[in-house]
Amino acid sequence: MTWQPDSWQQKPAVQQPAYPDAAALGHALDELRTLPPLVTSWEVEALRNQLAEAEAGKRFVLQGGDCAESFADCRAEIITNRLKVLLQMSLVLVHGMQTRVTRIGRFAGQYAKPRSADSETRNGVTLPAYRGDIVNAPEFTPEARIPDPRRLLRGHMHSAMTINFVRGLIDGGFADLHHPEYWDLAWAKRSPLATEYQLRVDTIGNSLRFMERLAGTDLHEFNRIDFHTSHEALVLWYEQAQTRQVPRKPGWYNLSTHFPWIGMRTADLDGAHVEYCRGIRNPIGVKIGPSITDDWLLGLCRTLNPDNEAGRLVLIHRMGAGKIADHLPRLIECVKKAGHRALWICDPMHGNTQTLASGVKTRRFDDIASEVRQAFAIHADCGSRLGGVHLELTGEDVTECLGGARDLSEKDLERAYRSQVDPRLNYEQALELSLQMASSRGVTPH
């Protein structure tokens, strides 16, 4: 079948909002198609080149951000804190791993979430599930839960404000390695990890000044960084409306993000999401879990990367600390034997989610760290390479994941559990994980 941006409509489409007013949806999509793109094709191609380098072992990918963004959190301090966390983590990884790091924010578009059920029941009342701010609202009222196509436009607007603010920060020198003090988070100064982090910062600063003395000039390439955005390509009406052709380049680009990915719930080979993603020129990620079969995985590789291009396909495994050793070696060997090119990334978050007796969802830091350690070791044993991590995290002082440097307990979760969907690592836990990756001999990339 010849691919077009709307080809997905001929395939089974799961996890899509049931919009009650088709005319209103059409009007919103017509308006969305006229709005400026959020990213450019040359930025997309630049990321593909970097992912190809990561595939070859010349880079490491740090992808992180909220499980699901909210319109209300499109605020300067929250966006700045997210960027600070990723910059600090990447600085630790650059220093410890002695390699370049590609930073991909899981934001500026992560406004939709898949749900395990189409509806939710409370006290005998059943309403549509909350599917993220780009679809409906979290309040448990009939009015809030009706899918509203005008929210697609609000999603574009909030994504534009977020990415443009991030670009402004970076272009203004916020990411300058000469001034890592810009990245401090006030609440994190009391962290038990602050001293270790500061030692790394001081070492990098001394090295930078030494190189500049040798060169006799400032090294301006350390004044700014590349930064890319990503989100799950879930609401296909939104993705289609932002899919465009550009002058002097073949094919179609999704210009709502640099790096869209497919989740486990929407990765069916004959499904709408795989059909949509196979036709765009962006690099594509796909989540794979313990239930994926060899044939399914090989089918995804063939469909999403038919020309076997470097930097095109990213396989994001999310197994769980207790299952990764039983399933990941099989998948690595399957892809290697078939000769498919792919960048492997570890998502240690989703396979380690648990629900407490209180009904609260959480994750244990030790499980998250264990899955990352095991992933590095398994790839090395299989003659493969782990090229990055995919994390749900925030720069806010939340208490949503157990353990970490402060050994957060179930009681601590009551203090600052703010996520509407999945639990996130807070700053300390995210930085601790990056320090472990950078410092432990057992997780040094090969």
TrEMBL record:
<dbReference type="InterPro" id="IPR013785">
    <property type="entry name" value="Aldolase_TIM"/>
</dbReference>
<keyword id="KW-0170">Cobalt</keyword>
<feature type="binding site">
    <location>
        <position position="318"/>
    </location>
    <ligand>
        <name>phosphoenolpyruvate</name>
    </ligand>
</feature>
<keyword id="KW-0104">Cadmium</keyword>
<dbReference type="GO" id="GO:0009073">
    <property type="term" value="P:aromatic amino acid family biosynthetic process"/>
</dbReference>
<keyword id="KW-0464">Manganese</keyword>
<comment type="similarity">
    <text>Belongs to the class-II DAHP synthase family.</text>
</comment>
<feature type="binding site">
    <location>
        <position position="67"/>
    </location>
    <ligand>
        <name>Mn(2+)</name>
    </ligand>
</feature>
<feature type="binding site">
    <location>
        <position position="287"/>
    </location>
    <ligand>
        <name>phosphoenolpyruvate</name>
    </ligand>
</feature>
<dbReference type="GO" id="GO:0003849">
    <property type="term" value="F:3-deoxy-7-phosphoheptulonate synthase activity"/>
</dbReference>
<dbReference type="InterPro" id="IPR002480">
    <property type="entry name" value="DAHP_synth_2"/>
</dbReference>
<feature type="binding site">
    <location>
        <position position="106"/>
    </location>
    <ligand>
        <name>phosphoenolpyruvate</name>
    </ligand>
</feature>
<dbReference type="Pfam" id="PF01474">
    <property type="entry name" value="DAHP_synth_2"/>
</dbReference>
<feature type="binding site">
    <location>
        <position position="392"/>
    </location>
    <ligand>
        <name>Mn(2+)</name>
    </ligand>
</feature>
<feature type="binding site">
    <location>
        <position position="350"/>
    </location>
    <ligand>
        <name>Mn(2+)</name>
    </ligand>
</feature>
<protein>
    <recommendedName>
        <fullName>Phospho-2-dehydro-3-deoxyheptonate aldolase</fullName>
        <ecNumber>2.5.1.54</ecNumber>
    </recommendedName>
</protein>
<keyword id="KW-0808">Transferase</keyword>
<feature type="binding site">
    <location>
        <position position="422"/>
    </location>
    <ligand>
        <name>Mn(2+)</name>
    </ligand>
</feature>
